[in-house]
Amino acid sequence: MEKLAITDLDLTGKRVLVRVDFNVPMKGTTVSDDTRLRASIPTIQHILDAGGLPVLMSHLGRPEGQRVAELSLEPVGRVLQTLLGREVVSVSECVGPEAVAAVKNAETGTVILLENLRFHKEEEVNAPGFAIQFAELGDIYVNDAFGTAHRAHASTEGVTHYFSECAAGLLMQKELDYLGGALDEPVEPFVAVIGGAKVSGKIDVVEHLLSKVNVLLIGGGMAYTFFKVMGLEIGKSLLEEDRMGVAEAVLKKAEDAGVRIELPVDCVVAPDLGEDVSTTVVPRDAIPRDQESADIGPETRERFGELIATAKTVVWNGPMGVYEMTPFSQGTEAVANALAQATERGATTIVGGGETAAAVADMGLVDRISHVSTGGGASLEFLEGKDLPGVV
Is 198 considered catalytic here? Predict the structure, then answer.
């Protein structure tokens, strides 16, 4: 993934328009999790240190092209100002005279934060007349928002047509180096762990990885569709009947490609899902008809852990069960711990975004994994082998 990076450019005295991902969780008008803000700081600091003016733009929530007071980026700017320890000037527009004036009048060493891009419906439809207005706000365009790179929006794709220099920010570069490196030049053995609720959501990832990996571990709700193909009773467990043919084809492809697919050998079952339910561990061929399986069992956890321990490269996307409920959280926790241990032994470990990243964060293991992706949908599409408009 040879891409122009921010470190390749001379930023002295330049206005640097940066697409960041400040779509942070909010409680009212308070930022409840500043992880994404912290992730953007190296790029912002790099611009400041190089003598440039960072002009930041982002979306927040889904205002559907309307100005929604609760989705203003101004409170986000206040948190960013504290994190950076320098002035962040929040502008109440993202294009037009007010934005242009704010950039023009900015003092050296300050940071400009433009208002929520999605207050304009033109952002998501990638309207050229909207995108061209960004050219007035910077000399250089930098995309540091991997989480939105799979969307062809005005601020991620349209904008690039109006700048002669477009580059990846430090966070974007890190995502491309880790995810691209794992897929293009993985150090073997390469083990992929795929979970999540549905085969339909992950089938493209599974098919793309079959030509890359040595071992594929499958857990989560999607495993039961594979069980059904194998003729096993799955009780009330999740089944995508219309994806059984796809699951069967995957098993055949893996066999032809010489890829080892490991499915759970035991499961955690309960009559219903909930925090206080009584659970039982059963072999995969003994799931009771009136019960639902919602996690991998202890033998599977151990087996998956042993296979992860042999790996030099591990990619994980999707939880092993309904991890947000305590009785069904142990499978996901076991895989997360196995990845942390593999990292300590020198393996490159990569966690795809979304639920998996949230689980790793909840467990306090982010610093013990080589790379936890900041993009949910973007990392998924990257693992599917798709071109991301914001990267292209």
Answer: yes
Q: What is the pTM of this model?
A: 0.88
Whether 377 is a known active-site residue: answer yes
Rounded Cα gap, residues 143 and 245, in angstroms: 40
Catalytic residue among 195, 354, 376, 390: 354
Distance from C-alpha of 346 to C-alpha of 341, rounded to nearest angstrom: 9
Phi, psi for residue 52 in degrees, rounded to 5 = -105, 170
In a 3-state reduction of DSSP, which class is residue 10? coil
Query: Is 195 marked active-site?
Result: no
* Catalytic option among 15, 36, 202, 301: 36
Kindly state the DSSP code that residue 131 receives in the 8-state scheme. Answer: H
195-247 pLDDT per residue, tens: 998 888 888 889 889 989 999 999 999 999 999 999 999 999 999 999 999 99
Half-sphere exposure of residue 315: CA atoms within 13 angstroms, side-chain side = 32
For residue 378, pLDDT beyond 70: yes
Give me the pLDDT at residue 201, please.
Answer: 84
Exposure string of 229-243, with b = 16+ CB inside 10 Å and e = fewer, is beebebbbbbbbeeb
Task: Count Cβ atoms within 10 A of the Cβ of residue 387 and give its class: 0-12 exposed, 13-18 middle, 19 or more buried.
Answer: exposed
Q: Point out the catalytic residue in the list 61, 65, 305, 377.
A: 377
Helix (H) or strand (E) holding 219: none
pLDDT band at 29 (very low <50, low <70, confident <90, very high): confident
Residue 85 known to be catalytic: no
Burial class from Cβ neighbours inside 10 Å (0-12, 13-18, 19+) for residue 273 reads middle
User: What are residue 281's DSSP bridge partners?
Assistant: 268
Q: What is the pLDDT of residues 326-354, one digit of tens each?
A: 999 999 999 999 999 999 999 999 998 67
**What whole-number distance in Å separates Cα of residue 351 and Cα of residue 55?**
30
Distance (Å) of CA 283 to CA 64, 227, 240, 261, 266: 48, 12, 21, 18, 4
Residue 387 phi/psi, 5-degree rounding, is -80, 130
* Side chain identity, residue 372: V
**Of 14, 78, 86, 198, which is the active-site residue?**
198
